[in-house]
Write a structure and sequence with these properties.
Blueprint (H helix, E strand, L loop, with lengths): L2 E20 L2 E12 L2 E3 L5 E3 L6 E6 L2 H10 L5 E14 L5 E14 L6 E3 L29 E3 L23 H13 L1
Parallel strand pairs: 5-7
Antiparallel strand pairs: 1-2, 1-6, 2-5, 3-4, 6-7, 8-9
Protein name: Single-stranded DNA-binding protein
Organism: Trinickia symbiotica
InterPro entries: NA-bd_OB-fold, Primosome_PriB/ssb
Amino acid sequence: MGIYAELVGNVLASPTMKQVNTASGARRIVELRVMSASYRRLDDGSLEQRDGRTFPVDVTIWNERLTERVLQHIRTGASVVVRGDFYVSPWINRDNEPDAGAHIDAESISLNLVRIDQVVYRPRQMRESDAPAQNEGASEPAGPPDGEAEESTSGDEPGAPPDHAGSDAATSGQPAGRRSRRAARATAE
């Protein structure tokens, strides 16, 4: 039985993919390092980092579907929330002294919204079971499947559509993300 943990912190180095051999064959994994963040609120309302509770944690992602998303969206400096099995790896360092490092085999990893400026949802992919009856469907995608979203920080995502909130293609009653997609679609036509 392991320790299931949740880690909140900042990515120290962009994720890297590598291939490892397992008993069931070769697998692609992603590794990254996250600096844990432990803060306390002071009387004046400001935050102070707690001494001795902030340390680097090595994170490994074994889920191949998740590895692709991590490589696409997470980079150095991103604030993330990692959940998974936590363990400590002891070793002997160069000075012949015992040392140890913290590690999480991640079950899930997500961007912490504290540093997110924009979220762009991808269009819903039509499935055979979702196909509308003859001429009954709407021309606008219904939204992201299963709550999935593509997150982007302002200016960091290459190819992220600009916010066309003032565009003629936008209608005033719709969320900004929907206006951006509609405006992008109108300019493409």
